[in-house]
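Exercise 7. Given the components listed, write out the predicted structure of the assembled complex. Treat all entries as one system.
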Amino acid sequence: MSAIAIPRATKPEVAPHSGLYWALADALVLAKRRLIQIPRIPDELIFATIQPVMFVVLFRYVFGGAITGAGPNYANYLMAGIFVQTVIFGATTTGVGLAQDLEKGLIDRFRSLPMAKSAVLTGRTIADLVRNLFVVIVMLLVGLIVGFRPSGSPLAWLAAVGLILLVSFAFSWISAVIGLLVHSVEAAQSAGFVWLFPLTFASSAFVPVATMPTWLRGFAEHQPVSVFVDSVRALLLGQPIGSTGWQALAWGLGILAIFIPLSVWMYGRRVGR
Amino acid sequence: MGARTAILAEGLEKRFGQTEALRGLDLAAEEGTVLGVLGPNGAGKTTAVRILATLLQPDAGHAEVAGLDVVRNADQLRSRIGLAGQYAAVDELLTGRENLEMFGQLYHIPGAAARRRAAELLERFDLADAANRVVKTYSGGMRRRLDLAGSLIVSPPVLFLDEPTTGLDPRGRTEMWDVIANLVADGTTVLLTTQYLEEADLLANQIAVVDHGRVIARGTSDELKAQVGGERLEVTVARGSDLDAAARALSPYASSDLRVDSMHRRVIVPVTEGARLLAAVVRDLDVAGVQLDDLALRRPTLDDVFLTLTGHAAEETPADESTPASRGGRNERVPA
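Answer.
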């Protein structure tokens, strides 16, 4: 490698565009980066697909027989819960990935570039949304195999998918805040998960809340995961949705309204010390 | 060599909680030169680089790079600087090519041009064969070269290299030195931090020695060495009985008192412009009938400089809390 001459860059032809254009363009560059990574992390693919499949099998065949009050076809009841739980668990990768980037010094490289600062966060949450969409499709196929027979209209279906993606996006931003709060990848992993277990299991995801003791029922009925699951279930099965749909929408948008600015602020504080 | 200042830092201060990382750091580098910032771990080198590369805001002081204020004009400045560091900041799960194309796009270079530039840099950095391999499989030297390539995408006029060879094997280090020398030959201004004295000696036009967040000495490598003391001629004689004769023959050349080390059969003579004297010295010793085992002209190393200036070795983490100012820059321990 002696006497190599490093060629000069030809005049960079930077196209004139608005800040918003670049914020989106840069986010897509980083989203692409993240999506390229996924197939190269075997753990992640297994976590993303095998684990939710295990949950479907476990609930459908192991617990399903003992669960009462969920209607004649438990698979129909279960799948809404599986979809919501899958995207909520999947969203934890946002915070873990951010913690990884912060640990490796790659964020410093990004910050020394003339790119939009927000792209580090938006790129990752967009990519994790795509990843979750893929996992939901896999789950849908598994659901059909184990007897899921949805009866909602195509429009209601579309609304259900939209709501699932909103839940995914909202929890990604919560996860981002956790990833920025903790100071190691391991902490991001455990802190990202531990609170999700009570939240998803003490909900209407897998069993009707009416079967729970009264002290738990109050929480289980009104907490956001139940609201999301009830709405998705009503849409998929063509049942009357009532006001739950609007409540779900409000929860999703409300989480975004709080956690997007919060994580942007925390990101600035964390890296600009 | 341009006379314009490419990097200027005045009175930079930065504090992290209880730690004062920088306490009034001043630096200057002319266009097209290499400024070596030399200091032990924790001296404040990385903090200074992070401020100059717009990653960190100083608590006090002012800095300009390529004529732009690092705080007020940070956004504009980012397209004119490159930063490569001790932690190769590349994505391990992407290939070398994917990394460089991504950085190019984030510099807002259109896709086709970014691809062309990535290919060009991979070729020049001897990474073409590994271009489509995931970076995780690269050696330390390859990662570091890719990291450097990533900072050269827009051919920035000013480049910050934070300990670019820390942790590399000797071969990787030599390769990196070649690359840096080439960049400088091409007109790039480089600020290089290092713990390796030979690296600063080899690459830097000007050296700033940093300790406890301040510059405690600056100058060319030769000037710094001169502060410690000049050259020494070390003559080892074959027979101990020749020592007196050797000392008599050498005394006219001594710029100050010479020293006879009988244990090692050696005469140590402080000299100025030793290289010019060598021929005459050899002749005189020959005339005096002194048989030689060894004759060496030894110049002080930057290790000697660091030890003299700071009272501790370069690689050791400073423990004492005396202020750099009180220790002073002019230590006359070795008579000149």
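Discussion: Chain B touches chain A through 51 residues (CB under 8 Å). Chain B is about 35% helix and 25% strand.
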